[in-house]
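TEACHING EXERCISE
Course module: macromolecular assemblies
Task: Read the component lines below, then compare them to the predicted structure of the full complex.
Student: A.B.
Group: 4
Components provided:
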Amino acid sequence: MTAVLATRSLGRRYGRRWALRDCTLAVPAGRVTGLVGPNGAGKSTLLNLATGILTPSAGSVEVCGAPPARDPAQLAKVGFVAQDTPVYAGLTVEEHLRLGARLNPRWDAAAARRRLDRLGLDTRQRAGKLSGGQRAQLALTLGLAKRPELLLLDEPVASLDPLARREFLQVLMEAVAEGDLSVVLSSHVVSDLERVCDHLIVLVDSQVGVAGDVDVLLDTHHRLVGPRRAAHPLPRDQHVVGASHTDRQSTLVVRAPAGIADPAWTVSRLSLEDLVLAYLTPPAQGRPAAPLETVR
Amino acid sequence: MTIEFSLDAGCGVSPYLQIAQQVRQAVRLGLLRAGDQLPTVKEVVSQLAINPNTVLKAYRELERDGLVTARPGVGTFVTRSVPAEVTAPLEPLRRELARWLVRARSAGLDDESIAALFATTFRAERDVA
Amino acid sequence: MIWLTWRQLRAQAATAALAVAAIGVVAVLTGPRIADLARRTTNVFDALTSTERTLHVAGIAVLAVAPALAGAFWGAPLLARELETGTHRLAWSQSVTRARWLGTKLGLTVASGAVAIGLMSLAITWWAAPVDGVAGSTRGALPGRLTPISFAMRGVAPVGYAVFAVVLGATLGAVLRRTLPAMAVTLALYVVVQIAVPLWIRPHLAPPVTTTVTVSTSTLDGISIDPDGRNPVISTHTPDRGDWILTDETVDRSGRAATLPGWFTACLPSPDVVPASTSRQAEAASPDACFGRLADAGYRQHVAYQPAHRFWQLQWTETAFFLALSALLAAGCFWWIRPPQR
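Instructor-supplied answer key:
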């Protein structure tokens, strides 16, 4: 399976602060990948590095097998919907479509127009006068109509109301269903991603916390509830990701690919949100931080 | 569309399993019969805003169980109906159950007590059998 | 890309077109009378109405200010606005390379500015041609074309300045990433350059001609006091009043720089300080004798100047200089905006 986005020790810094550090990923093609992390974790930085808008300070990044923004053919393979969905406020919707048609070789004008008609967007309106949801839909239409192999979206639904959010995701998923499109979409709200993503990357503190197919992640991570014990002798292939205790009871989130054999624990399945939260919660005092992992 | 799916995000069951379950339930209730076409992946995705792979996975599982068959380029179709002999006893059972529920409620049981009563009796009866 | 650049430039281009049209109309309406006057009288300046004199000043002001405005309002926002509003993320994720994007934007904007200002300069230079450099009997005669105040606002030089200003604005916009600071810095740097070039660069664009002038009433431009306040200083002019005097120093018989002898001040009948005079009134007879004595003692004026006929040569040389500077800046801008190399 070729990786549609591959990074190797990728890093970017501003002055002395590393916005992204030591990021090594391989996102398989054909997936909808969620990029999750708190604000400032490096999600925007990673996406801007992948589109070639930012230059890496360390490491390398490749999209669809080649460095980003290398030539027009490479630029045509990647679409980007940036944070706050920038559009030219002075240009009308129609002129944005013309922009896309002129600047992209594989422009699908008919599909773009169809989508906008379905959404009820008046093409003569200036883009600056559109509502947030309409602007997001315009940006998404522009990104999809260039027929990329990979579409990157930076918090596209963060400032949208629930209806606009649902409509945005519907259009996006329909495009994925039509085939041959990989998507990487970032959000700091996990519930958006649960319906939509089959691959997940968790960024925390500018580094990768965990990455892998959602099914595999949910199959290999478990919630263990059991009586409070002084020590937690877990077998070596099991790692504690998060833990909380009352004076009687311990609750652990554990990564155990081989399953849990110890009958003392009550094992239950995690939701995606709980899994992400476990990786995002900073480690308790004295317990070493969870190791960086990639799960295939 | 023949049937419409719904997704319960918080219930802890994977989305693809929920879809497969809903198809099986619809077949069981006779809402879907042999030869009926399941909603296309695009239709489901458009309605629910979920990952198309989820729908594909659900349909593949149903196909593995022999409940549906996929015709490339056309769609996914139900292969077998629940035979009439199986659906026939359903109606009287449903009526009986409805009457029991009325009695349980007038006895003062709330939803959770009814569900708990059913679950424990169900398990006890199954373990005996 | 050309379409997009033009669409974004549309409003500014319309303003410029309006300005050019207005100037053209005024020039066509008022110009012929002045050209006619010049044919009939030698002292055109005195024959001008006050409106026409105002127009002359206005013409200078327009050409002085237009390149700066082009730099601040066309050049500075070109990249700064995209970077500030984030639309560069939209532009750079289309299928055009960074180089083509910048090249088209910069190229079209520079070309438009050059054409607009070129047309303005054409109209104003044509209009003012009969009047430039003419000495009038009234005060406020017009400076020669070569002197700094006129040179920059005539001919083809403003086009070079406009190109430079726009490229400067664009580069500053790319570096500073904010429109208002970029506009302010562009204006400031443009003013600095416009002061520095006539002082240090323009005099050397062609090798100055040197000559020795004997002081007499016909060559005398004025006598003043040096900064120390003790010795008189003579300034002279060359036969062609349009020449641009660069240095004018007194030298003695052996050719070395010297101050005027003490007896000279005592010799002159009038007060020490004589203002630079374009008056044709003859001085009293005795100054001639003083000048004669000065010449006999070996004192001459060593003058370095740019001859008036070099006007167009200097214009083209200076324009080439600014175009070369612009090319350098533009290369810097492309380098700044470049995509990741790896």
